[in-house]
Amino acid sequence: MTDDGRRTTLTELAALFLRLGATSFGGPAAHIAMMEDEVVRRRGWLTRAEFLDLLGATNLIPGPNSTELAIHIGHRRAGWPGLLVAGACFIVPAMLIVLALAWAYVRFGRLPEAAGLLYGVKPVVIAIVLQALLGLARAAVKSPTLGVAGAAAVAATAAGVHELVVLGAVGMAIALLGWAGERTSPGRSAPSVGPLAAPIAAAGVATGAAAFGLGPLFLFFLKVGSVLFGSGYVLLAFLRADLVTRWGWLTEGQLIDAVAVGQVTPGPLFTTATFIGYVLGGLRGGLVATLGIFLPAFVFVAASGPLVPRLRRSPVAGAFLDGVNVASLALMAVVTWQLGRSALVDLPTVSLAVVSGVLLLRYRINSAWLVLVGAVVGILTSL
Fold it and tell me: What pLDDT is recorded for position 3?
C-alpha cells in the first residue's frame, strides 16, 4: 500500500504492466529499470528499499527475474489477484508479438529485419538503466561495508564468476558481519541464515520421450522454467541440449532464430519458448510452451513473496538481503556495461543516450516514450 493506505486496483496494475510488456526492450536490466521508474518514482507504490528487497528476492529463485519482479509488485499492491494480473499482463504483449513473428517465420521462412529498431532503442535503454542504478544504489549502499561489497561483486561478475556464486557469497558475508554484531549485544540471539542462502530449485521434470507432442513440450518448458538461473546464454544451453542435440526437434538455425526473437522483442526473454512452441506445434504449441516456462515463476513468487517482509524484520536475514541487494545491482551494472559496448557505436547513438539521460534525470520524462522515440529514430536511420 501507499502512504495513504490505498490499494492499487487491478485495472491500474493491468494498464501499467500491459504497457511495460509492450515497450520494455533491452532485457531484464532494462525491464527492472522501467519498473523502478514507474512504481517507485512516478507512482510511489513502493519505496526504493521495498523495491530492492523484492529485486533481491527474485535473484534467489529460478526463472525470469523481471517477470518475477512484476509478479512480486502485483502481489504486494493487490494481493493474490494482483499477482496473477501483473504477471500475465507483463507476459501477454510480448507473447502476442512473438506469435506474430513466429507466424511470419513459418509462412515466409525468415525473420523481419530488426537491426534499425535496435540501433535506436539500445542507447535509450542504457540511459534508462543507468538512471535506475543511480537511484537504487543510493538506497542499497547503506554503509561503507556495503559499498565495498558492491564493488567486489562488480569485479567478480566482470571476471566471469557465476551470478549465483556472487549473490550467495556477498549475501553470506554481510550476514556473517551482522551475526557477529548481534553476538556483541547481550541477551540477543540471531537466527540461522543457512536456509535463506540456498536458492529455491525445483526438481527437474522428466520429459523422456523423443517424439514431439504438446505434453512433452509442456513438461520440457516447465522443467526449464523451474530450474533455470542465469542469463539468456544459460537458456540457450538448455534449449540446445534437448531440443537440438538430444531430440532433434529443432535445427541449430531455428534455435538461433528463436533466441534472436526473444532478444529483439519487448518483454521477457523467455518468450523464446513461445516462438519455439509455434514453430513446432502451431498456435497451440506456442501457448503451451509459454504456459510451461512461465508457470513456475508464479509458483515461486507465491511461495517466497510473503517471506520477504519477515526476512527484513530479522537482523541477520535482513543483512543477508542487504548483501544480495547490492550484488544484484552489481550484476545490473556489469550487464549495462556489456550492453553499452555494443549499443554506443557512433556519435548518433552516444548522443541519443546522453539526451535520454538528461531527459530522465532532469525532466523525468516517461521512459516508455523515450523507447518509442528511440525506435522511430532507429527505423528512420536505417531507411
Answer: 47
Does residue 207 form part of some domain? no
Residue 216 lies in a domain: no
Which is nearest to 174 in space by CA: 197, 193, 149, 192?
149
Residue 9, Cβ neighbours under 10 Å: how many? 13
**Number of compact structural domains in the chain:** 1
CA-closest candidate to residue 201, choices 86, 299, 91: 299
Residue with the three cell numbers 502451431: 282
Statement: residue 284 has pLDDT above 50? yes
Residue 323 within a domain: yes
The per-residue pLDDT for 362 is 83
> What is the tens place of the pLDDT at every residue in 198-210?
333 333 344 444 5
Please say whether the beta carbons of 360 and 34 come within 8 A.
no
CA distance 99 to 43: 32
Closest Cα partner for 67 from 27, 110, 101?
27
Q: How far apart are CA 116 and CA 114, in angstroms?
A: 6
Give residues with Cβ within 8 angstroms of 17, minimum separation 6: 70, 74, 85, 86, 87, 89, 90
154 occurs within a structural domain: yes
DSSP letters, 27-62, are -HHHHHHHHHIIIIIIS-SS-HHHHHHHHHHHTTSS
Span 84-99, mean pLDDT? 95
In sequence order, the 6+-apart residues with CB closer than 8 A to the CB of 380 are none
Gap between the Cα atoms of 71 and 51, Å rounded: 12
Q: Extract the C-alpha cell encoding 287.
A: 501457448
Q: How far apart are CA 342 and CA 336, in angstroms?
A: 10
Range of the structural domain that residue 183 is part of: 10-115+141-199+301-338
pLDDT in tens, 54-86: 988 887 788 888 899 999 999 999 999 999 999
The radius of gyration of the chain's CA atoms, rounded to the nearest angstrom, is 21
Can you give the pTM of this predicted structure?
A: 0.71
pLDDT of residue 191: 42
